[in-house]
# Entry
Amino acid sequence: MNLKPCLILGSGFHRHVFGDSDSQDIRPLYDWHHLVGQVATRMQVAIPDRAMSPIQRWETLLLWAAREGFFDYAGDWFCPHSHQTHLIEKEARRSVAVILNTAATNYPKSSRAQIPQRDCWGAVISLNFDLAWLPEEIRRSKRSPQHGLPTNKIGQREKRRLTTNLLISGVDSGVHRRVWFPNGSCLAPETIRMGLHDYGAAATAIRVAFSHLKAWERASGVSEKSPDVQLSTCSVALRRASEELNDLSAPLGEPPLPLTWVADFLYRPLIFAGVGMSDQEAGLWWLLAQRTRNIARTRAPSNAYILVHASDRNAFWQTKPFGLTPITCSNWDEGWESVMLKAGELGK
# Structure
C-alpha cells in the first residue's frame, strides 16, 4: 500500500504565504529572534543579544527575568529572585501563545496558505507552534486528541509533544489526517519548546517513541517477515491507526500500533519544506538515520526530500545525508511549486 507523504512544515512556510513582507504584526510567525524579543518586551525583561541563537536568547531571557524581575501573563509584577526558572518559563510560554495567536489573526486564505491542507498529504508534522493556516473551525475547536504512550522514561510534557494532534478531513478512504506538533503548540502553551532545556529532552523522547514502535513490530510479528512485507504491513497498520482507514480487514488481535508523530515520520515518504534542519534538531536527524536503516534492507527508495535554496550549504545537501534529497531552487516560489509536484508523484 502506497502511503501519501508527510509534510514536515517549518516557519519558512509563513514567509512563502506572506511573500516579501516586513510587517511587524506577522513577523513572530517566521522570525524566532523577533518572537523572543516580543516575549521579553511583554514581560518587561531586557532583550538578549542577537549574537546568540534564538534558543540561547530564550534561556538568557529566563535567567534575567529570575534575577531582575518580570511581569507575568496577567500583568502582575514579580520581584527579582521571587520565582524558580521553570515557573518563569511557564509564563513566557503563555506569552508566546498570545503573540502568535495575535499574529495569526486574519491569516490569508490564499492557495498558498492552503498548501498543508491539500489532498496530496497523508499527514502534517508542524515544527511551528501556531495554528494559523488551519481552518477557523478547527482553530476554535480547541480539540487536541491524544493517545496513550505507556512509559515512565519521559515526563508528561514530552508525552504530550509526541501525541498531541489535530484532525483535518481525510482522503482516499481515510476518515481523517493528522497535524502533529512535536515542538508543542498554542493549543497547549505549556508544551511549547523554545529553550535549550527542552531541546535537550527532545532526542530522548523521540528515541522512546521509536523503541515503542520497534517493540510493536516484534509483538505483532512484523519483524519476522521479509523486509518488503514489513514495510507493506507497517503501511497498512499506520493508515488504520493514523487515518482510521475504512477497510474490511481486522487487526486479528494484533497489538495496536503506538501512534505518535514518530510513526508518520518513520513509515511515510517525507518532504521537509520551510525547515532549515539545523544542528539543534538533533532528534530529527537521529530519527532520520533510523528511518534510513529500516529502508536500507529493502529495494525501496528513501523517499525523503527537503526544499533548500541553491545558496544554502549546497555541498552539504548534495551528499544527501541519510537519504534526504534536496529539492533545490533559485527562488522560493519555484521551490514550493516543485514541492507540490514531488508530493503528487509520491502520493500516486
Remarks:
- The chain has twelve helices and nine strands.
- The chain has a mean pLDDT of 91.
- The first helix runs from residue 12 to 18.
- The longest strand covers residues 304-309.
